[in-house]
Design brief:
By secondary structure, the protein is an alpha+beta fold. It contains seven helices and four strands, in the order ααααβααβββα. Its EC number is 1.12.1.3. Belongs to the complex I 24 kDa subunit family. GO terms for molecular function: 2 iron, 2 sulfur cluster binding; hydrogen dehydrogenase (NADP+) activity; metal ion binding.
Length: 164
Amino acid sequence: MLSKKSTVQFNGTKEQEKELLEVIHELKDEKGSLMPILQRAQDIYGYLPIEVQKIISNETGIPLEKIYGVVTFYSQFNLNPKGRYRISVCLGTACYVKGSGDIYNKLMEKLGIVGGECTPDGKFSLDACRCVGACGLAPVMMVNDEVYGRLTVDDIDDILAKYE
């Protein structure tokens, strides 16, 4: 069964929180400071869970709703953690017509997550993308920076096994 939300619990450290507070106090009085604070917070934690957004809200006085709105508007920000192995399946036209949708669906089934999520063990995350610039190898997926091309759904088990 596919999950509806990420099942990875937030586990920020005191060191990360201390670093975040230093960033906030350094930047909060500057005009337009929210974006740089969010960018640095994501660098510290790897994503922007609600717990981190609340700290930023409490320390800056910016309403949580505004922070959440910015985080969800800009694609550079992640609400869910990324796995140690970040899988990205191209769903651009060339890949899609050659079966990348089936590959994406197979990965969701095998990993037990939907796009944008991370497996509970933090090993894999899955995302769709529009083009990786390897249309001649369609359909294509990437695991971190490694490109896999001319894929079929039958290739998925062997690829995942490399990262077990």
